[in-house]
Specification:
Blueprint lengths: L1 H20 L4 H8 L3 H17 L6 H32 L4 H4 L5 H15 L5 H8 L3 H9 L4 H19 L6 H10 L6 H10 L39 E11 L2 E10 L4 E8 L4 H15 L6 E4 L3 H4 L1 H9 L3 E4 L9 H13 L9 H16 L13 H9 L1
Parallel strand pairs: 1-4, 4-5
Antiparallel strand pairs: 1-2, 2-3
Helix pairs in contact: 1-3, 1-4, 2-3, 4-7, 6-7, 10-11
């Protein structure tokens, strides 16, 4: 009998401990232990009575409650910390605060409500409102309020911005995008366009440094620098600039030679090949000659590369009455117009694409030059119109 009472006491103490520490309900624990709920409640009462009789012992139920309270406070502090971190990123320079400067208390509340609306899937609304110092009723009133005329206009403009950004292959920044929208009949300024693009993560690909491939260590004759960094022209076929660059593919290097009309920045001839030799440069030149049929006196400007100094190439130029001009030794600015084209095509196409074959790269380059760069792409130097449109305008 004594053994049974000892077992019962240990069993009773274990049951009370489970109630205090497991976080489960008394009914669930009673069912698991196979005892009645009233019996379990009686054991809990006995345990409390014993603790009252021995006040020096820490009450397990109170410890569990204190632990639960501390965990809750830690969770609240964690949420507040994460909300403040989110708000810091939201209000940092370049964020919505810069795009919509707070001109007063009302504007400041709108910005906070926007942050709450974006973060409510991660945090309770009441906690967000508490940390940011706004009321829940104010947030829900703002959310249920119909969109203003400017907000509706922004939605329409954003749809056109996304369309133009996609058509530009993700290359247009706010200046070109603004001109695109203005030409489509929208009255919009650059700052509004920049805000819409920034708020929606539409960022143009940035340019990277360009590596030259000129081989000037040769014995071919060098022509004088007639252009001398004067890239201006009053009509097409007055000045051409040429150069060669490279594109990496999984099959190896693919070389690209271009001929550009300095009047309109239009690519009037181009050719690609797997070897860097004069035939590549000649192929691009002959395409330009067939397409444009330039008058005598056209100035042809290149660097001092062996491809352009070769006897065959210079003979082709003289045969068509073309004047030959070459950059000064070691001066990278003497052919800046063509270098700018290579920087553009690499940042907008080459560096964003993995080419598995040379043929794949050739097709992509053809689509870019003939389908986008010449007929569509807006150039800041041409008052944000395309080379083809610039030439048509000049011919009127």
């Amino acid at each position: 009998m004594t053994k049974q009472r000892r077992f019962t006491k240990e069993f009773e103490e274990e049951a009370v401990r489970l109630v205090a520490t497991s976080g489960r309900t008394q009914r669930e624990i009673a069912e698991d232990l196979g005892v009645g709920l009233s019996t379990l409640v009686r054991w809990i009462g006995r345990s409390r009575d014993r603790l009252v009789e021995a006040p020096g012992q820490a009450p397990q139920a109170d410890m569990a409650a204190e632990l639960k309270r501390l965990r809750r406070e830690n969770e609240i502090l964690r949420q507040e910390r994460d909300i403040l971190k989110r708000a810091t990123g939201f209000f940092r320079p370049g964020g919505i605060e810069e795009a919509q400067p707070c001109r007063g208390h009302g504007e400041n509340r709108k910005v906070k409500f926007t942050l709450i609306d974006r973060a409510r899937k991660d945090f309770p609304v009441h906690r967000l409102c508490q940390v940011l110092g706004v009321s829940q009723s104010g947030y829900f009133a703002w959310k249920d309020r119909p969109a203003s005329r400017r907000q509706r206009d922004d939605m329409v403009l954003l749809a056109h911005v996304r369309s133009g950004f996609a058509l530009s292959n993700g290359t247009y920044g706010s200046p070109r995008m603004t001109r695109e929208l203005q030409d489509d009949g929208f009255a919009i300024g650059r700052r509004r366009t920049a805000r819409l693009m920034r708020e929606n993560g539409l960022r143009a690909r940035q340019k990277r440094r360009f590596k030259r491939t000129t081989d000037s260590e040769h014995a071919w004759p060098i022509a004088p620098n007639i252009i001398d960094q004067d890239f201006t022209a009053t009509a097409p076929n007055q000045k051409w600039g040429v150069d060669i660059s490279y594109v990496w593919t999984r099959e190896g290097w693919l070389y690209l030679a271009v001929v550009i009309d300095l009047f309109s920045r239009r690519v009037v001839g181009w050719a690609v090949g797997d070897r860097l030799h004069r035939d590549l440069a000649l192929a691009a030149l002959r395409k330009a000659l067939v397409l444009r049929r330039p008058p005598q006196g056209l100035i042809h400007h290149s660097d001092r590369g062996s491809q352009y100094c070769s006897v065959e190439y210079q003979a082709e130029l003289r045969c068509h009455g073309i004047r030959i001009s070459m950059s000064g030794k070691g001066n990278c600015y003497d052919n800046a117009m063509v270098d700018t084209f290579f920087k553009t095509i690499k940042s907008e196409l080459v560096w964003r694409t993995v080419f598995y074959t040379r043929d794949q790269a050739k097709q992509a380059i053809a689509r870019y030059i003939d389908g986008f760069y010449n007929p569509i792409r807006r150039h800041s130097a041409l008052d944000y119109i395309s080379p083809a449109q610039f030439e048509r305008t000049a011919s009127r």
